[in-house]
Amino acid sequence: MNKIELSNMKMKTHAALLSIFFIHFFVLSTWSQQPKVLIQDIVLQKDAVVKGAKGIQVSGNCNFQAFTAVYNNDSLMEIAFDDDFYLTITPKMDTNEIEPAMGYNLVFPDKKVAVKLKVVPATFELMKGKVPFSTFIPYAAFKLDAGAQELSFLFQFYGKDGFNNVVSGRAVSPKLAFEKPKTRVFECKIDSLEVKQTDSKGQMWDPSLTTIDKPDLKFSFVLGDFRVNSINKHSSYKIDYTQKPLVYRFLISENDEVYFYLADEDELFDDPIANWKFNSTNMFDNVDYQQKQAKANLKGFSFTCKVGPLK
Fold it and tell me: Positive or negative CA dihedral for 103, 107, 108, 109?
């Protein structure tokens, strides 16, 4: 390599480094403006019914448009927001957080009702500047008396962008007045659930993911689309509590429907195996109910459910 070629190579290297420096300098120097994610278009729908369960549907948009002043082209925006961010939605009574009702402590381990949503902006959403969100919270999850209630909702957005800058946003909704229905204790006693060695199409459960073909079983209790709890048994054809049946209790609202879902849990998405529905409207107090209908993917299942009186 002659001196001229060597000189040209050094100049190109310096130019590339300068380019990177200017991008980072631009980002850091303009970050002092501290743009925020705006939580907008908030809609609180009381008495929403999702798959037979009553509660509050919360929806809105996370607005990223303020960041175009910092990341002033599509490429920079994609680099900045090609990551996972989180939105926490916390209902409040005045300034007080709401405790979870009986049976909801596992889904709300911090002893307060707060839903954490993962926000992953897609490219087309960034171009529009808005990323929608939506969640459903059943009335039964709130440790509140039946009757007239009034809640507001605190929204907190947080995360770090692709340039390691903190991204945040905050909003508080107006108060929502609603009538909280009476509740009943829903009880499920589980003996066992056993799947067949192949699914209803004759396929192995996890042939391409592992040398072990047994499914990773997840048995979930669901109100609407809200998972109250789940039982997991990895690499097994059976969830077995025959020696000591597992009893799980949680509150439901008057006339709520409860769904049970059995799935093969995978990294990307869960493969459904079987599901059951119990409509509390048709259930008498303290009477054991069992669905005996055959399920295509199951070798056998044994569990019973019952509800307590309204309170």
Answer: positive
Look up the pTM and report it: 0.84
User: Which helix (H) or strand (E) is 21 found in, with range?
Assistant: helix 3-30
- On whether the CB atoms of residues 251 and 102 are closer than 8 A, the answer is yes
Tokens of 102: 């009986």
The neighbour count for residue 115, using CB atoms within 10 Å, is 19
pLDDT digits (tens, 9 = 90+) for 267-295: 767 789 999 999 999 999 999 998 888 88
Report yes or no: 153 and 92 within 8 Å, Cβ to Cβ. yes
% the chain with pLDDT above 70: 87
CA 248, 107, 256, 254 torsion-angle sign = positive
215 close to 264: Cβ distance less than 8 angstroms: yes
Dist. CA 276–CA 298, nearest whole Å: 13
Residues of the chain with pLDDT under 50: 2-31
Kindly tell me the sign of the dihedral angle through the C-alpha atoms of 137, 138, 140, 146.
positive
Contacts of 69 (CB under 8 A, 6+ apart): 30, 33, 35
Q: Which structure tokens are listed for 308?
A: 């307590």
* Phi-psi region at 61: left, alpha or beta (left = phi > 0; alpha = psi -120 to 50): beta
